[in-house]
Amino acid sequence: MIELKNLTFAYSGHPSIFEGFELRIEQGEAWSIIGPSGCGKTTLLYLMAGLRRPTAGLIRIGGTPVSRPRPETGLVLQDHGLLPWTTVRENAKLGLKIRKFYGPDGRHAPQGSRLSKSDMDERVAYWLKRLGIDGLQNKYPIQLSRGQRQRTAIARTLAMKPDLLLMDEPFSALDATIREDLQRNVMALHDESGLTRVIVTHDIEEAVFVGDKILLLRGEANREFRIIKNDAAGLEDFRNRIEFRERCDYLRELLGELT
Question: Potential cystine with 179: which of 36, 171, 202, 224 (Cβ 3.0-4.6 Å)?
Fold first, then answer.
């Protein structure tokens, strides 16, 4: 469970992005965050990830205050962050190798999470196959499409078995067909694993498709906000249903009021 209490944040020399902001995300929920450019979508994600610290207020995950990145949180960015000199398989294994270096110290890796080399190889192989890129495991990033590179980045994150998955516009630079395929994959993985998921997006249809709850941020200091319940998210053929179009139109109308 994620709890934001009386959160305030401002970049140095700039007005506050959040003032007294409060939000609660329950374990296992799937959220999408949308709003005008500059409203703080990515900043909010980085605050949850522990990459930025609030000016005031508190963030708790699982009842523990967040003061630094936690090893149980997985973060997928728009920039895939792959090492160009190593293969898909080794890129997908990178997080596990870093954890092994530090050991299960509770800071860089969850306590009790020590894995053997064969365990790491098995876990990585599972996610490469699950994401449809096991046939590319010996290729290098330069040999991959953007969609294949993003699948590799997702495999690297999921191989570490996070309990919270944060994604910052992970599909924005992809072609429509590839983007929708990855969206379906992420929805299926969420349903199977029950992990908590938060996706930042600027795309209305994506927000409606992937978010059981949609957080609509404003274009000014965020204290008040809208939460749109979206129980049909991820249902089979949801994009072809009338409620999908109605939900998109409603969200588009709300966004129009903020610009």
Answer: 171
Is-same-fold flag (1-72+164-259; 74-161)?
Answer: yes
Query: Under CATH, what is the fold of the domain 74-161?
Result: Rossmann fold (3.40.50)
Angle at 218 between CA 177 and CA 17, to 5 degrees: 110
Would you say 153 and 168 are in contact if contact means Cβ atoms under 8 Å apart?
no
| Topology (CATH) of 1-72+164-259 | Rossmann fold (3.40.50)
Q: Where are the domains of the chain?
A: 1-72+164-259, 74-161
Residues 99-152 have pLDDT tens digits of 876 666 556 666 666 677 888 899 999 999 988 899 999 999 999 998 899 889
Are 32 and 206 spatial neighbours (Cβ–Cβ below 8 Å)? yes
Global pTM reads 0.90
> Cα torsion for 40, 45, 48, 54, to the nearest 10°?
-30
AA letter at 234:
G
Q: Which residues contact 79 (CB under 8 A, 6 or more apart)?
A: none
d(C-alpha 259, C-alpha 254), whole Å: 9
Calculate the alpha carbon distances from 231 to 92, 154, 210, 211, 214 in Å.
Answer: 33, 25, 10, 8, 10
The C-alpha atoms of residue 237 and residue 134 are separated, in whole angstroms, by: 27
Distance CA 31, CA 228 (A): 10
